[in-house]
Structure formats: C-alpha cells, structure tokens
Amino acid sequence: MLRHLLPLLLLLLCSNSIGRVSSHQESGEWSCDADSENQVEAEFRPGLVTVDGHADDWKDIDGFEFPLRPALDPDEDHEYKGGKMTVKALHDGHDAFFMVQVDGDYVYSKGTSNKCPSVALMFQIGESATYHNMGGCSEGRDTCNNKSCKGHEVDMMHFSIGNAIPGRLYGGNPIDNRDGYGGDRFGHLVDLYAWTPHCRYLDGLGPSGNDTSAQNDWKGAWWHSSFTTHSGFIEEDSPYASDGKKGTYYFEFSRPLRTMDRLQQDAQFTIGGSSKMSVAFWYPVDGQPWHGSGHYSIHCDWVPLEISSGNSKLTKSAPSVSANVSSAFALVLSVASLCLSVFVGYMLFRTPTVGPYTTMDGNL
C-alpha cells in the first residue's frame, strides 16, 4: 500500500519544489518577435564528455549564447543582470548531452530550493504543443487529460539543486524507476510532461491514473566556478562555498536519444533530425526566493535543436585524409627517384682510376 502511495506523495512534494503556478498569468496580450538565427546544434562527438558538472571537457564544443528574459514578460529592460546563458549540446549516437552555463554570484541554501538557482529544459512532443503556455492546451485544470489535450504534450526536465551535492549525479535511479515514475527523491532532478502550466505531472502520473511503465530518463550534475575543491564534496561540506562569490554556474545533463516511453511523455530525438526546445532559469535575485512562474527563458518561442548526423563531417574529412596520404607517398617517391638519379649519374660519369700496367711475369 505504501509503495503505491509513494509516487503520489512525491508528486505533491515535487509540485511544491517546482513552485506554485497559480500566478502564471501574463500582464497583457502575448507577443513574440521570433529570431530565425536562434538555434542549438548537437554535434556527433562520441566519448568526449563525462556528466559531472565540470565544463573542462566541453571547451572545444561551440556554445550558443542567449539573453535571459522573464518568461511572462520578455522585455529586454528586465533581462537577468548576471549575464547571458550559454547552451551547448552534443550526442554520441546513443545519448544526448547538454551543458547549460550562466554567470551568477554563488548562492546556496540547503533544503530550500527556491533560494538556490534552478534550471529546466523543455521540448516539444505533440505537433500542436506551443512554447507559450507550456503546450498551449485550452482545457482547464479539471478537464485536461491525454485525450482532451492530445497533441499539446511537452517534455520537461527540472533540476532544483537545494538538496543536490555539487558534482554528484542525480536524476533517474533504480529506487524511483522501480516505482515507475519520473521522480528523484535524492536530488530533485525530475522528468515531467505537461499540457499547460496548470496540467503538469511527473512521468507516469496523471489525471487519468498512474502507469508504472514510466521512468526518469535524465541524469545530471551541477557545479560553480568558485569552488576550490575538485576531489569531490559530501553533504556535510554544505554550503560548499561562501555566498556572494563571483563565478559561473554549470548544469550538465544527459538522456537517451530514444526512450522506452509509450505514453507520449518524452520527446524522441532522431539523428539528422530537428526538435524544438527551450531552457528556463530561476535565480533568487537579491536573496528573494523565486516562484514557479518567475523564471527567465532563452527566448519567447521554441528554439530549434539540430541533431547532427556527422556524415557531412566524415565525408569532408575523408578526402582530406586520403589526399594527405597520397601527397606523402608522392613525396617519398620523388625523393627516392632524385636520390637514384644522382647515384646513377655519379656511377656513369665519374672518372675511373687506373693504376700502372704490370706484366704477369713480373710478379712470378
């Protein structure tokens, strides 16, 4: 009985951690000037990164920089003052990897998520799912479900670091995945889906009942550049650094390109294909706790996510390698031919040395 009640209890806890959305109302009519140049590209770079929150292994990956503006009022006058957000992505043919970095003075309050920075990724699932209103289903809280809001599904990953140790891995784990839902009781790196801000659930849970086939497919870790310890933190080291230190937050994530989802709750990535995504960031500005709808976003609409196949890179590099080998071989042949010519010329045209003539009889 307790096992069946546990996902419901954790859903309530997670809802509080993510923040209440009752105030998720725009101040006026929604408008967005789409930027056709905005995009994120995930290159094919196998065996390059380890999900530990550190950015060192991402140094050769191009990042895509975005200003952070309030999601409900994307006015540049209200931009996040700490700086822009850089988003990097790659894949290894099996998993997709994301690095999100944003400048910010270090703040951390153990056990109080809304007094710590937080980040979320959102992806389009349903073809009718809009960025605005988190899927854009017109149904209310009491009538939204997988039938009335079909086609408006969005996939989300939300990481609140208030109970997460820097550099440690959180997200999908055997204990929570055994119960068949998208929670994370250890670090609150959770796997969700939604039709609207008011109809948002952990994977496997929903208004039509729970389905124990779901799981949390995400893994992730966080770090801050002000940390002086790199050998590893434990919980007793909290708060890990002094508040107010200048630096950069790093949030690193991974999940399979394709998941075992059969409930239309996960976005599915295709090599060589394109998806739509967004990134949100919460920060306790001036030490004030953030609330659920008080987040910044990288854009006021979906941003294309291109999953590169790597074929173009391989095709371009192959002739280059072949040409280098051919050139080297030709150079060796040229040098060998030159040496042989010099040697033959020397043997043909040198003046022979002949000693004085002596008869045989003179030596007998």
TrEMBL record:
Leader peptide range in chain numbering: 1-23
Organism (species): Carpinus fangiana
One Pfam short name: EB_dh
Name of the protein in question: Cytochrome c-552/DMSO reductase-like haem-binding domain-containing protein
GO molecular function terms listed in the Swiss-Prot or TrEMBL record: heme binding; metal ion binding
Coiled coil region boundaries: none
CDD domains: DOMON_like
Domain Cytochrome c-552/DMSO reductase-like haem-binding: from-to ranges: 55-297
Keywords assigned by UniProt, alphabetized: Electron transport, Heme, Iron, Membrane, Metal-binding, Signal, Transmembrane, Transmembrane helix, Transport
InterPro entries: Cyt-c552/DMSO_Rdtase_haem-bd (IPR019020)
Transmembrane segments: 328-349
